[in-house]
Amino acid sequence: MNQLIAEAYNKAAGPYLAKYEARGVRAKDVDLALSFVLVEEPFVFEIGYGGGIEAEYVLQKTGRYLGVDISEAYQQIAQKRVPTAQFMIGDIHTYELPNNIDVVLAFASLLHSSKKQLETLLQDLHKKLNQAGVILLSLKKREGYQRADVTDDYTTRRFYYYDRHTLESLTKELYRVVYYDEQERQEPWLTMVLQKI
Fold this sequence. Notes:
The protein has helices spanning 2-11, 13-21, 27-35, 53-61, 72-81, 115-128, 164-171, and strands at residues 43-47, 64-69, 87-89, 101-107, 129-140, 146-151, 156-161, 175-184, 188-196. By secondary structure, it is of the alpha/beta class. The chain has one domain (2-196): Rossmann fold, CATH 3.40.50.150. The protein has a seven-stranded mixed sheet with strand order 3-2-1-4-5-9-8, sandwiched between helices. Strands 6-7 form a two-stranded antiparallel sheet. Strand 2, helix 5 and strand 3 (87-89) form a beta-alpha-beta unit. The N and C termini lie far apart (32 Å).
């Protein structure tokens, strides 16, 4: 499945990025995540950097940034935008996570991760986060946990939808929710910040 997702984003990188970046840089969300970390030069690990729009902003706040994305096309686009940033290509579910992370940013990048994959990733990230480190998740929202295959002009992609209760059930005893909000766009979304306990 992840190879199909990589192919989809490589095939339609331009149109997908145009749609995402039309919202602008998510500066408020980056600032929110950074506000929970009392480190002068925090290490930010971004899952799914896309075209590098948030990386460019993050690097104005800290010099310690690493991003991973499944799409080779996105890596080329992001590296042109932010030549000084470290952008890696990889599947987050098999990627060797770095140590000593202060902030994880996952803007719409875990939409293709099943509940089991997300639970395993959150457990693995917990081991790599510094004390009181945070994860910012931005996901599509529906009541309960749901899966849907969505076809657009370019390809078919499998999406997973979450709600607060489902996410909290995956994170109990590892994280506490320090922020939660829901947004209405073309469809409902949620933003959640989890802090390591």
